[in-house]
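Quick one: sequence plus copper (II) ion SMILES, need structure tokens.
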Amino acid sequence: MLFQNIFLISLLSFASSSPTPQKPGTWQPILDEEPSYVNPSDCTNPPLRKEWRQLTIPERKDYTRAVVCLYNMKPTRLANLIGVDTEYSTFTANHKTQTPWVHFTGLFLPWHRLFIREYERSLQDLCGYKGVQPYWDYTIDSGPGKNITEAPVFDPQHGFGGNGKYDKALNDRIPKSVGTFWGGGCLKDGPFKNFRFKLARDKFWRLDDRCLSRNIWEAYTVYTEQRLEDIILIQPNFENMTVYLEGPGFEGSQPLPGGWVTTIHAGGHFVFSGHPFDVITGSDPWTSVLDPLFWMHHTNLDRIWWEWQQQNEKNLWGVGLRMDSRVGPVWGPEFKYVDEDMTWDSPVDLTAEFGGKRNQVKIANLLSTAGKTAPNGAKSVLCYNYSKSPKPARL
Ligand SMILES: [Cu+2]
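Reply:
Sure thing.
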């Protein structure tokens, strides 16, 4: 209940002010020619996105090197938005312009799938990264007897670095009942230790110069355990699967047992708490992309969706939920929703300023990750599969 209140407070705090970014509702994707990352006919041998610990040490180093490269690069787009000063921050800025429409709506999974693909492409094309996007299966590091801080992703040499410096003032304001915290300040080690960003948290557009911080929430690993993934995989349709993965709040959805932030999506964000709020821990939904762990978490969510899709053809081509949402108004009254059901033909659009046609597709173009054409003739613009996660065998 307390977690629930904390999350509500953090959401409601968004609702309190001023001007903003873009629009949807007025989205007019340019779909006059086939958008594509790959020619699906070339997708005969899809690469495998692997779990972090399935990468060799040189592969891990090459990945984090490429992330640092994006951070050190001048922005090639969205440079007109306040606070965009590196190519890495263009991703956060783009996420921030669309946060209300791509969370707690039917676009959540398809939009983030395309977003991850654009990030992967940038690592490869702009920074010479040789591999594909990895994921972090935190269920391996969660549960009785486990200590999440020992997860290989937090390794200072071969990972993303660990917790932030201890911020006493911050942690004194967090109720003791939600857990004990050891971080909250700037990262102490790892390849991203010196990252600073100017993008303001929340929906505001102003300069806000800050280091990258983390406040690992060990107690929240009760929501990154395997049972949270298991319940997603048994859902009978896209709507229920999304609700169990992201959280309810969709029109017509039922509350989940235990409260509405008890999902693996919230679990991952709150556990590593990259770039937390001042008082409330857990990542800021608008700018959580600033912590490179965002991609490891969201790629794992994409993998869970993929695992669910692999079960049968009905799942593979399943879409649904509405564009509006009961949670919508908490993003701020200025955000208006498109009141329509998501279908194969619904546009998924990372905005024209962010990659043009390449980033403007329809949901049906994103359902198969490995080049399969949808029943309505829409071609897949993706080409990858996932490795089998190195989870311990279960009895
Ligand atoms: Cu997001």
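The chain is about 30% helix and 5% strand. Strands lie at 48-49, 164-166, 184-187, 196-199, 207-211, 347-349, 360-362, 385-386.
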